[in-house]
Amino acid sequence: MEGLIARAVSKTYRSQRGPVRALDNVDMTIAKGRLFGFLGRNGAGKTTFIKIATALLRPTSGSIQLFGIDVVDRPREIREQIALIPQEAKPFYQLTPREHVEEYLRVRGLSAETAKSRADEVLAAMGLETYQSVPAMVLSGGLQQRTLVAMILATEAPFLFLDEPTLGMDPFARRQVWEVVRRAARKGSTVLLTTHYLDEAEQLSEELAVIEGGHVLYQGVAEALKSKVRREVRLQFSGGFTAQELARYGDVYPDRAGLTLLTTRSAVEELTQRALERRVPVNVGPVTLEEAFLTLVGRAIEDEDAETPA
Amino acid sequence: MTWKTQAIAIFRICYFNGWLGLRRSPIAFIALFLTPLSFVFFLYVIAPRSVLPFGVVGGIMFSALFTGNAMMNDCAYLRLERQVQQIFITSPLRPMSWILGMALSELVFTVPGLVLFFAILPLVVPIGVLTMLALVGVVLLTWLMSTSLGFLLSTFFRQLREIWPIGMVVFTSLSVIPPVFYPIAEIPESFRWVAFLAPSTFASQLAVRAAGLSVPIVASAPFLSSVGFQVVGLVVLTGLFTIVSMRFARWREP
Ligand SMILES: Nc1ncnc2c1ncn2[C@@H]1O[C@H](COP(=O)(O)OP(=O)(O)OP(=O)(O)O)[C@@H](O)[C@H]1O
Ligand SMILES: [Mg+2]
Prior knowledge:
Number of strands of chain A: 14
CATH superfamily of the largest domain in chain A: P-loop containing nucleotide triphosphate hydrolases
Mean pLDDT of chain A: 95
Number of domains of chain B: 1
Number of helices of chain B: 10
Largest interface: A-B, 37 and 33 residues
Oligomer: heterodimer
Bound molecules: adenosine-5'-triphosphate, magnesium ion
CATH class of the largest domain in chain A: Alpha Beta
Helix content of chain B: over 70%
Structural class of chain A: alpha/beta
Radius of gyration of chain A: 22 Å
Number of domains of chain A: 2
Number of strands of chain B: 0
Structural class of chain B: mainly alpha
Distance between the termini of chain B: 28 Å
Mean pLDDT of chain B: 88
Strand content of chain B: under 5%
């Protein structure tokens, strides 16, 4: 069974400055138990999609099913299955991290013992032990965010929606989040996660979707995205080549040492050969997800601009 | 979740939002009873002694009515600023349980003030235990009506800034303009029915009657003075606010 099926989901907000089409015929499928990354620029429509999938917002048209249950028709059953970290949520200011976790689990119907043992576990995993009895109002921003992650991940809900869960966290804390998210997925939860850290998305997601202007540009694994945009290899030249010369192989950017070229696997041999002939060093490495993302979305923006009459 | 787990959830919300909130920032409840207490104080200083019982009952009703203001502020704050309402309603918890838990926690904040007014009451008017219990019943009905109105109002806000002035206007009008702190007899008889346009009038007239201070309201319309009419009025208003909240409230935003 699929974890999530979205069919032709559209959402138009009515705002004072006229209607805003936040989602436009979005189709998406997430297999049950998958750790799924949802990427897109600011305003692309990620949060809107999550709000619809968690029955907080009604789609203008289209449908979403979680585990075969329609979100619009049966929100009560959906709520049994989900937990959500909303984007930029903040904890209760008078409660401690431990209270957040335990009280939330109890409100969700778990026993006091379960709540306590899960709190022990998740507070340790999130590095919150030393802060567990400190009211959130005196915790730093990143510690507050960790508290929310602990609270939601401790639910072990079958479907976890994490809207920018690592916002404002240091690199250590982010890795702790990755670990608890991976553990949740291993235990069988389906996870939909948004992030603007593409290294995080690459580390974490088994599959991903890229959305731009309310359209899904891509869904699949990260490696296939790189092939799709025909940018698999990064070559870094320190001298010996001009930007014009490299441009026909792919995208060229100036960098600190010289020029960076993003290109296909097939161009590598020819170019390294030529670099050897010219006796200039060349660095060869894989394209990052971030570079593939910039290419994919960059092209979509260009197409959009080309279609819009000046 | 079963009814039992929903009930436990409601009390947990009341515990951490109400009780822990009260214990960790006690200034909040002082703020809640300071205003009605100062009204009572002014009445004590400037008005004839015969009005004082109305003042103390007024203080009780003011406290009960202002749970609605606190509810409106809290719910809007938790939804817009903290987004924890979203965390709680994307869970097996029923929306109605969230509302009830929040309403109960507002009651917790009001209890210290209520205890104070209930302690003063026997000093200004002879009153028995049964009367006290009847008044407690009125307070509970008023709290339900007012918090359901507060929640309904909270759903309309898009921004926190608008809340403070609107709360002051709505809940101060509800508790100061209608006959809450003064006898309804002060209004010319032919206009007394107008007072029933304010939900708080139903509550205050019940309270005044429970305290043994009531007068026939309108000779030609005796039903206005009847307990039945006033209780049903409060219950119907509570139901109405709740249904409108559940139907149209922004569980699903625009
Ligand atoms: N309540 C609203 N009323 C009107 N327009 C809205 C509303 N919420 C979002 N939008 C618009 O819908 C579009 C999608 O917004 P959304 O919040 O889904 O983006 P996002 O991908 O989550 O962005 P970010 O990465 O910045 O969080 C944007 O153009 C935004 O301005
Ligand atoms: Mg967003």
